[in-house]
Amino acid sequence: MSEDPSVETVGVGVVRIALRTPTLPPATHTNSYLVGGDVFYAVEPASPWSDEQRRLEDAVRARLARGHRLVAAIVTHHHQDHVGGARSFCDRFRVPLLAHPITRDRLGASVAVDGVLDEGARLDPALDALDVAVLHTPGHAPGHLCLFSRAHGWAIVGDMVASEGTILIDPEDGGDMDAYLAQLARLASLQPTRLLPAHGAPIDDAVARLEFYVAHRLAREARVLAAVGDAPTSLDDVVAGAYADSPQAPYVLAARSASAHLRRLARLGAVVCEAGGRWRRVT
Ligand SMILES: [Zn+2]
Ligand SMILES: [Zn+2]
Q1: pTM higher than 0.90 for the full model?
Q2: Residue 274's domain is classified under what CATH number?
Q3: How remote is the CA of residue 44 from the centroid of ligand 2, in Å?
Q4: What is the pLDDT of residues 3-61, one digit of tens each?
Q5: Ligand 2 geometric centre to CA of 1 (Å)
Q6: Which end of the chain is more exposed for a tag (fewer CB within 10 A), N or C?
Q7: Does 53 share its domain with 187?
Q8: Rounded to whole angstroms, how far apart are CA atoms 128 and 132?
């Protein structure tokens, strides 16, 4: 079997295989990661399309043929571009699908999760040399997980950051801007040296990128606050004011982001939501 050239080592004990998925444009792929050595996990066997699934299966089979053992598959969160191929992958290789309990509950019967991983969970002892910390990082999704190798500095970060496209915080789908900003800061405090996102190439200016994400969101939040007048302001008007600099942003995505910022600002006591869903600044 010839090796797939797109199977790329991206850190000690971790390889990346980008599979085409039905994800949010401009991204077109979701990265699957194989984590470990003789004993390994598959993170995000995400593609629902059989030709793409085959590429991942071939990479896994090549390792099984060398005597390696696949422990389980892990999904970072419940979004369709992360779980689309998970069930068929697990059934094919007869391994359990693991996710955070909130992700399991969100997926319900649509993608059956066999076991849970939460903050501080320990992976198979055979991976102890990688010293992988399982982190619960809500914000983009309430049951989001990251895997951080304390031994080697890489962090599989799912949709916390992306090197292709932007990260949507959608309050209608469990998104929480306050939690997201707190988890970005926590990831930065762990001083990773390489971020491995679900979409796009590895990110080597890891801490700077995480800090940039926080600063970028706070700058947008300042624009959202400025767009909320002293008189009650509709969400449409907040979006028009806060996103005037990026008219190319699809309205529905801008509205969801603005709504996420407004909810955080309300929690901070800076705005209130009045009857009719209009927002007013607290002065
Ligand atoms: Zn997502
Ligand atoms: Zn995604």
Answers
A1: yes
A2: 1.10.10.10
A3: 10
A4: 676 899 999 999 999 999 998 888 899 999 999 999 999 999 999 999 999 999 999 99
A5: 30
A6: C
A7: yes
A8: 7
